[in-house]
Amino acid sequence: MNSPAPSPTLTVSPTACSTTCPLCQEPGGLLVAQTPLWRVVRVADENFPAFYRLIWQSHVAEFSDLDEAQAQACMRAVTTIERVLRSALSPTKVNLATLGNVVPHLHWHVIARFDWDSHFPNPVWGAALRELNEPAWTRLALALPDLDAQVAAALQRH
Amino acid sequence: MNSPAPSPTLTVSPTACSTTCPLCQEPGGLLVAQTPLWRVVRVADENFPAFYRLIWQSHVAEFSDLDEAQAQACMRAVTTIERVLRSALSPTKVNLATLGNVVPHLHWHVIARFDWDSHFPNPVWGAALRELNEPAWTRLALALPDLDAQVAAALQRH
């Protein structure tokens, strides 16, 4: 790990940056952990509070732009996040996705879903099905800073 | 490859099946290729004709239920499909996702997206943004049976 503790400093190499790509210019969320290959941020989404994003540090568009070792490192980290979410929150399901239609810089969404959440079983990009009476984060088994710390610690160990 | 040619016969072990899970009971699309670990089907979706699904043969819910070797085999196959879509169709973007909120049996969506498609840049699960004047499949660079054959051949080689 280059910088296991949360830090606002990005390790993106300037030569691998696109000057017009927001994920080359900004963290893309609350920085939780990073290595020279990837960073993990938590996304501020009131409907889906346990929403992490693994962002590849270099500006590549597609998962298949990674070589085999990079792809394995990427999915090992994604899987590590998923395991923490399962262990800490016992979600109904974990959703993984890399879309990038709007920002074609490789990033993976890792989202804990619950049968009580606003959209379940719809995808988070689909239609909402219900309104909650309280903020979604209050229904998680763990406070978000503690969850961030567990994700960071697991990524440091993995 | 256990059965590289398209075949309606599933290789799922009965002991790994759930009697109530549709992906344990049915192919889940047009079968394109399979091994003892996974099968690849093409999904009949008129809006997104170049839509493949890798379905894990055993009934597991989450990607992190796979061990390291299984996860690597899974993502190698997903990446192989993505590479064929990119090479054959030059899509604007490829979307990868494993959600499973409705059918919690591990399956990966691999979808070629185009800036002209009905939803782009929205996710396929989001709102449609336009209507096409002709069937989407007519705008692909390749006929779907030929695309299936390229996917099957690549999965056999990979």
TrEMBL record, chains A, B:
Residues 54-120 form the HIT domain. It holds the Pfam family HIT. A motif (Histidine triad motif) lies at residues 105-109. InterPro entries: HIT-like (IPR011146), HIT-like_sf (IPR036265). This is HIT family protein. It comes from Roseateles albus.
